Amino acid sequence: MKLLVTASLVTLFSTNLPAQSSTPTLSSIQVMVLGTYHFGNPGQDMHNMKVDSVLTPAKQAELGDVASRLAKFNPSKIAVEALSDRSDFVTRKFQEFTPETLNRDADERTQIAFRLAHQLGQKSVYGIDEQSNTIDYFPFDKVDAYAKAHQQGAALARMQDKAEEMIKQMEAAQRTKPVRLMLADVNDPARVLSDHQNFYYALLSLGNEKEQPGAELNAAWYQRNAKIFAKLTQIAQPGDRVLVAFGSGHAFWLRHFVQTRPVFGSPNPAIICGKSGRQALANDAGKFLVA
Fold first, then answer.
1. Are 12 and 73 contacting, i.e. CB atoms less than 8 angstroms apart?
2. What is the DSSP letter of 284?
3. What is the pLDDT of residue 288?
4. Which residues pair with 247 in a beta bridge?
5. DSSP letter at 174?
6. Do residues 126 and 78 lie in contact, with contact meaning Cβ atoms separated by under 8 Å?
7. pLDDT number for residue 283
8. Domain-by-domain residue ranges, the chain?
9. How far, CA to CA in Å, does 288 sit from each of 19, 24, 253?
10. What is residue 238's predicted lDDT score, i.e. its pLDDT?
11. What residue ranges of the chain have pLDDT lower than 50?
């Protein structure tokens, strides 16, 4: 049975990790889900974080450090939050990438995934995102309308305020923290769980005997992530090591799928914290990670 192992991003932000063997175990597929935040925010999220330019020499050096650490995972495939109209899910955008692109394109997919793929000499990056012209995968307008119509607007506003406060904290932190530590924070398993519970699961309280807009939003978000994971399983082959770089809001469900898909028999992930000197124990399934 194939084994699918997830490694939280905090894994490779620890220090002194040796490079991985170029020959993966053929009976396993190892997946690292890297939750990211927007470097060049397109303003399409409900809460949009303002990030200092990552095109400065200092930030470029930090991103080079991130790529070097990720390279120790030795991914054989890299997948990103992008659409592909090809049957093999290869994204055409990477074909246009050159090192000079890093000087003008702040997008996190370019700065992290494309940079790493080029560094490793890979010819393709996979776009496994899911969007639809007919399905609303985030029907928040229905949640908002329900809350206002049923005197629950204040409760929804409190959820929004919590999210906005988190964004402000991240905006302040990124002014002084290096990118690798920002990514380590975003990918901390406890934070991924807390963020999901405080927003998505909190919305489950909004509903009655006739309408369940909170549950419907959760179901739609689950559906999008399930389709993303389905595409991941369709590009992954025995022996692959796949780095999946997606917005951090996807991390909860993508890690859930990686860890619990029965046919792959996934154990718990190995987690090594990327903050200076602090490490969690790696389990047997994560022997490729060395403290």
1. yes
2. G
3. 27
4. 36
5. T
6. yes
7. 28
8. 3-286
9. 9, 10, 24
10. 86
11. 1-2, 8, 10-11, 15-18, 20-27, 262-291
Structure tokens belonging to residue 145: 């309308």
Predicted confidence at residue 4, as pLDDT, reads 54
32: β partners: 243
Question: What is the model's pLDDT at position 22?
Answer: 43
User: Considering only CA atoms, which of 59, 67, 64 is closest in space to residue 176?
Assistant: 59
- Tell me the residue ranges of DSSP E strands in the chain: 3-6, 28-36, 77-80, 126-127, 241-247
DSSP 81-121: S----STT-B-GGGGG--GGGGGT---HIIIIIIHHHHHTT
The single residue listed with the structure tokens 């080079």 is 64
Residue where the block lists tokens 């369709």:
234
Please name the residue that has the structure tokens 């809001």: 249
d(CA 258, CA 272): 18
Q: Give the pLDDT of residue 42.
A: 64
For residues 66 and 261, what is the distance between their CA atoms, to the nearest angstrom?
29
Instruction: Give the whole-angstrom CA distance, residue 128 versus residue 89.
Output: 6
User: Reduced to 3 states, what is the DSSP secondary structure of residue 222?
Assistant: helix
| pLDDT the model gives residue 168 | 94
Cβ-based neighbours of 44, under 8 Å, separated by 6 or more: none
What pLDDT is recorded for position 21? 44
CB 229 within 8 A of CB 158: no
Neighbour order of strands in the sheet with 3-6: 3-6, 28-36, 241-247, 77-80, 126-127
Q: How far is CA 88 from the centre of its chain?
A: 21
CA neighbor of 276 nearest in space, from 13, 8, 2, 7: 13
